[in-house]
Amino acid sequence: MQQDFLQEKQRQRAPSARALATRSKILNAAEQVFARHGFDAASMREIAQEAGVQVALVTHHGGSKEELFWRVVARRADELSQARVDALEARRFRGPLSVSAIMECHFGPYLEKAETGGAGWFAYARLVAMVSADTRWRDLAAVCFDPTAQLFVEEIARLYPETPPRAIAASFVYSVSALIALLTTEWRMQALGDERESLADRFDELITFCTAGITATVQQDS
């Protein structure tokens, strides 16, 4: 599936405020249902029930189930990518970049949105995990996530010009998996004795963990 699939069909007039509100309600509902059940087990009927609309409206605003999943994932991707790029550009003005600084710019915007932007961002982390784990979403990842991820990988690569690109890419993916784990399995940390309630309290710990992993990996492969 190609990027232009996500583009809305041109209309003679802009959608009404009511139509936009209905679409937002459907996308929010779909995000929760997909996060709860996964793509295969989610049903359009349950999404409609969650949104409080008829199934026909879900299809009208979202298309098929696969199209709807694409729309739900893409909806937050641009916002998150822009926040990460902005953080990286702002950090450049403060001096030379380090691995920890680069990862702070990648992780910080998501953790801030998860803390302040509502439950949808936690549900979205589960969708990101699904996309990352299933090759059928390769095209979706290529459109929504890979350009920004590649930018950050290249920033790390500049610090280690003698390290094979595959090692840097692998260590970056491991680090992103750690971020997703924090956002989706916080309850496990609490069950095992970490009773902190704020993601901000775990931010430095996450950065330290991932920086150490990336540094060890690139040193081993240099």
Automatic annotation (TrEMBL):
Pfam families noted in UniProt: TetR_C_30 (PF17939), TetR_N (PF00440)
Annotated ranges, domain HTH tetR-type: 20-80
Residue ranges flagged as DNA-binding region: 43-62
Region forming the signal peptide: none
InterPro entries per record: Homeodomain-like_sf (IPR009057), HTH-type_TetR-like_transc_reg (IPR050109), HTH_TetR (IPR001647), PsrA_TetR_C (IPR041586), Tet_transcr_reg_TetR-rel_C_sf (IPR036271)
Keywords, in A-Z order: DNA-binding
PANTHER family, alphabetized: HTH-TYPE TRANSCRIPTIONAL REGULATOR RUTR, TRANSCRIPTIONAL REGULATORY PROTEIN
Protein name: Transcriptional regulator, TetR family
Taxon lineage: Bacteria, Pseudomonadati, Pseudomonadota, Alphaproteobacteria, Rhodobacterales
